[in-house]
Amino acid sequence: MGKTGVIIGKFLPLHLGHVNFINRSSTKTDKLIVVVCHSSRDKKMCEEYGIPEITVKDRLRWLHTIYQDIPHIEIRSLDESSIPAYPDGWKEFVGLLKKTVPEKIDFVYSGEPSYDSFFKELLPEVEHILIDPERTGYNISGTQIRKNPYKNWEYLPAVVRPFFCKKVVLIGTESCGKTTLTKFLAKAFNTSWAEEYGRNYVYEECGGNEDNLEYGDYIKIAMHQKKLEAEAVRHSNKIVFIDTEAIVTQFYCKLYEGKEDPAIDEIIKRQNYDLWLYLENDVKWVDDGLRKNGSDKERNKGKKILAELLEKYNIADKVKMISGNYEERLDKALEIIKGEFYDI
Known about the structure:
Layout: E1 4-9, H1 16-26, E2 31-38, H2 42-48, H3 56-67, E3 73-79, H4 90-100, E4 107-110, H5 116-122, E5 127-130, H6 142-147, H7 161-164, E6 166-172, H8 178-188, E7 193-194, H9 197-205, H10 217-234, E8 239-243, H11 246-257, H12 262-270, E9 275-279, H13 296-312, E10 319-322, H14 326-340
Parallel strand pairs: 1-2, 1-4, 2-3, 4-5, 6-8, 6-9, 7-8, 9-10
Helix pairs in contact: 10-11, 11-12, 11-13
Binding site for NAD(+): 15, 41, 110-112
Domain Cytidyltransferase-like: 7-147
GO molecular function: nicotinamide-nucleotide adenylyltransferase activity; nucleotide binding; ribosylnicotinamide kinase activity
């Protein structure tokens, strides 16, 4: 029978120092069990650092994603909510650990020399092995990441980065410059962007003519838009820019079909963005072969409908308005983004 080693940690969040630690530990044993400790106290810790709650499922998903192709590494979870917080509760913790890992434990790995006395007292039959206690491989900690994930972006595994990505969405009515500004901003921040899918849908499914759109098409557009958004977030660099979201899709549904789609409502309720940029339609209307609402009357009608929807979904107070010529719009957008996310 082979030897079994154990790693214990909160991984709040998982960083490359942890990955290096797991990799090296796994070379020293036949089976490595990574125990993800979590408790009801974790949410408060995240709030204190001003970051979103990192749930145990987030951490398990990250670790499973990274190590799914390494068969001798197992990931398990241990709920510490019922015992005193570290550094107290060691005795109670060992009891929970033995329930989580009922197998015979031969080694326990850590990077903390101070843990040695605790392990010798409470797990005398287990050998405590130190792995890179000086952190020469990756000089980073979970505390540093929580304080500023963007300053320490290089230490976040690719699978973790989307969790911290700031999402900026650009909205507006027809021919307001959203697409061009979205591309410019993505280039300025060296990151990804999600294009507006509705235009492609019209070309792919409607022969390039918006008049062929039907009521059932808008939910398809909204759903695929979310897929494009998720893909852009997956490849982002701290921030991502999104050209259009579900409220704008609902806007076009109401504008062209005369009614809203309750299925799109459900998407709107679940979407979340860190910053909303609303582009006024005060630039010259451009006929690109698809657009058809170029008169002042039509543009004002569209503006009114979108404003009503933003009020309905409680977004009106969140949007940052951008107007002026194209250069002024770019300057204003950059100013707003840098003001909102000064550490990116």
